[in-house]
Amino acid sequence: MVLEALAHPIVVIVASGTLVGVFLRGAAHKFLDFTWFAHTLAEYRILPVGLAVPAAGFLLAAEVAITLGLVLPETRFYAAAGAACLLVLYGAAIAVNLLRGRTRIDCGCGGAGQGLSWFLVGRNLALVGLALIAGQQPGAGDIGAVGWFATLATIASFWLLLAGAEKLADNLSYLAAADDGAHRRDAGMETH
């Protein structure tokens, strides 16, 4: 019953459409400032520095291919599988750096200024779940005009929800950094 509901055409299209927005936004930021992205990738200290630029190019190409693949029903399964793999890879790279105590580097997710956090790891895991749904063969049925309207409205709502959650995580990260700086400043004043 649950699997049938997750394979409903509206659910599969909403999952795909949400991922299209996520990967399109990420790819656009990487394309518009490729040098920044390659530098950010090098800051993760997972790859040798000399591989940062080629790896950045590969990741950008993968995100573009995933975005395009999610749009077409014939390639949606493969694009969703690629999306899940890439999201797991990104989440693992973020988790490794968080465990190293490296929170002050940019995540590289979509524009400068978003530091690493466990929220991003959780977000990526949730998006992996969406990718698994998007990769399903949708069940039979015509969703009609009202169904399409509801589908597009839901996709837009998910995009706004993700943007709002990322902004909240950004602000919390900024406040934590400001609080950390205040504690250091206060500790320095007490020793004099």
Notes on the structure:
- The protein is mainly alpha-helical and 192 residues long.
- It has one domain (2-191).
- Helix content is 77%, strand content 0%.
- The chain is globular.
Helix content: over 70%
**Beta-strand proportion:** under 5%
- What is the total tally of β strands? 0
**Helix tally?**
7
List low-confidence stretches.
none
Quaternary state of this entry equals single chain
The whole-angstrom Rg is 19 Å
Order of helices and strands: HHHHHHH
Q: What would you call the structural class?
A: mainly alpha
Described by strand count, sense and barrel closure, the largest sheet is:
none
**What is the count of distinct domains?**
1
Shape: globular
Indicate the mean pLDDT.
Answer: 87
How far from one another are the termini?
Answer: 68 Å
Summarize this structure as a short list of keywords or feature phrases.
192 residues, mainly alpha, 7 helices
Short description, anyone?
This protein is an all-alpha fold and 192 residues long.
